[in-house]
Design brief:
This protein is an alpha+beta fold. It has 3 helices and 4 strands; from the N terminus they run βαββααβ. It has a single domain, classed as Alpha-Beta Plaits.
């Protein structure tokens, strides 16, 4: 992505799954999130994700990190109110022990 002076809006989601969540359910949810952000909703400019790799407990049980980039607040609102996003969140909540969401404008 080319560097510009425009501040991009980041939507960061940290996820802590319930202990009894099956690995195949986690894999399915990872894929559904990726599809949601890269195929179903055009407003997402960039999507990346990963899992905690540290050997300490500073992550407080949060194992998955997702970062979505939007051009502006309107695009984030469109994403948040999209029916596919609402359905994904509804299904995700069945497996959540916790989540943390942070939105910020990236400064360079």
């Amino acid at each position: 992505m080319a560097s510009t002076n425009q501040e991009m809006l980041r939507h960061v989601v940290l996820i802590k799954f319930k202990e009894n969540t099956k690995p195949e359910d986690i894999s399915r949810l990872e894929q559904e999130f990726r599809t949601l952000a890269t195929v179903k909703i055009n407003q997402v400019k960039q999507f990346e994700w990963g899992t905690h790799t540290g050997k300490d407990n500073r992550n407080q049980g949060y194992t998955h990190f997702f970062c979505l980039t939007f051009a502006n607040q309107e695009d984030l609102d469109t994403y948040s109110n999209h029916d596919d996003h609402k359905e994904f969140v509804k299904n995700l909540k069945l497996h959540l022990d916790g989540s943390l969401v942070i939105d910020y404008f990236a400064k360079h």
